[in-house]
Inverse folding.
């Protein structure tokens, strides 16, 4: 039973009372990630008292600090990623990004395992209890509202690139006592494409698929004059150029990353949130498509990091955080469906990881202590200098 969502509620007891089997599985997952990363990527084991290097701090202090969050949407299990048998699916995360990163092997999600509600929890620092399939805002203030209110930042400085209709309310909460109109600007690439296509949607059907989890929830992709204005005035793209580029792409996540890079070039937001979603094709039951989604996400994460390193507005002063919203069911759990779903709440579904790259981050270090997914918001607050007063998470000291 979850506590009712109360705006401004005090932090709940974070003590985890796990059955021994759950704890044993968690310990195995953490140990496997640690040992595999040490062997394959040559990283070291860090401690809770090992802070980021003074050089990284000095470099980030010279420019305005920026943060990019990439949620590894849909969740991917260890056996298809960081276990030895999965390493071929994430060569760039493993061999290019991990050696540059601080890697956290034990990120726990104790909330509802649905993609929108879990992403909303990541964005508020509170385990939200909203309907995963309803187009409703989070109940608690988002990281974007804290950032803009505390630091008096304009709307152009906080953006969300969202994968589907269900995420269009993620930028601003329903907590009106906090303040209205302080959320992030949300761009839905599929809506942009639908508006640009204007009647020729069939040509872009592979980029407009909106939901994999429930065939009963397949809302119509919208798009109109507002989206066309976003294309022209913000992204500086003509309809024809956008359509031509989209035609060359193979998936919705490729479209999202393309839009994210355009936002970086045109708006240079200090807080940019990108939600990947291709991996969620696992719900269709096609293992090959699930693996393809993991491989594509691996490539796109590396592509984003290269974009950061090559952009003068971002290079040297940006921290990029990559983490799944949650995992997927294990093959051993009789109540689940293995890779296809995330319904059991077992250790494989709830225990994930996080990779931190860039400013203020120590390179090539693995941390094994438990953090929670709701710790993301207060940690970003410590990085950028705002106070997420209603978050129930804690600052991750290794990153600040």
């Amino acid at each position: 039973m979850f506590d009712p969502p109360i705006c401004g509620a005090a932090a709940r007891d974070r003590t985890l009372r796990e059955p021994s089997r759950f704890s044993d599985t968690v310990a195995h997952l953490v140990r496997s990630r640690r040992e595999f990363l040490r062997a394959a990527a040559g990283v070291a084991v860090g401690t809770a008292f090992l802070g980021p290097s003074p050089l990284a701090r000095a470099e980030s202090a010279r420019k305005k600090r920026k943060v990019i969050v990439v949620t590894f949407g849909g969740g991917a299990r260890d056996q298809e990623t960081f276990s030895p048998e999965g390493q071929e699916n994430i060569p760039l995360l493993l061999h290019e990004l991990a050696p540059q990163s601080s890697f956290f092997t034990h990120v726990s999600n104790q909330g509802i395992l649905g993609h929108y509600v879990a992403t909303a929890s990541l964005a508020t620092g509170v385990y939200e209890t909203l309907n995963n399939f309803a187009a409703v805002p989070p109940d608690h203030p988002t990281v974007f509202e804290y950032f803009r209110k505390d630091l008096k930042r304009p709307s152009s400085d906080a953006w969300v690139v969202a994968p589907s209709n269900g995420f269009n309310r993620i930028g601003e909460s329903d907590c009106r006592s906090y303040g209205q109109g302080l959320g992030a600007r949300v761009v839905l690439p599929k809506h942009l494409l639908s508006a640009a296509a204007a009647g020729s949607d069939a040509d872009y059907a592979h980029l407009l698929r909106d939901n994999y989890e429930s065939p009963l929830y397949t809302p119509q992709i919208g798009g109109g004059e507002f989206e066309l204005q976003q294309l022209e005035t913000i992204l500086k793209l003509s309809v024809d150029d956008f359509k031509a580029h989209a035609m060359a792409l193979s998936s919705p996540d490729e479209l999202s990353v393309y839009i994210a890079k355009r936002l970086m070039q045109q708006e240079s937001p200090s807080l940019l949130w990108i939600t990947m979603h291709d991996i969620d094709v696992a719900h269709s039951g096609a293992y090959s498509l699930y693996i393809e989604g993991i491989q594509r996400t691996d490539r796109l994460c590396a592509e984003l990091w290269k974009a950061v390193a090559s952009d003068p507005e971002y290079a040297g002063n940006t921290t990029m955080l990559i983490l799944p919203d949650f995992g997927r069911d294990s093959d051993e759990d009789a109540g689940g469906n293995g890779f296809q779903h995330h319904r059991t709440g077992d250790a494989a579904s709830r225990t994930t990881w996080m990779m931190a790259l860039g400013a203020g981050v120590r390179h090539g270090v693995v941390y094994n202590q438990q953090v929670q997914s709701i710790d993301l918001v207060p940690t970003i607050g410590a990085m950028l200098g705002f106070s997420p007063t209603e978050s129930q998470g804690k600052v991750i000291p290794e990153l600040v």
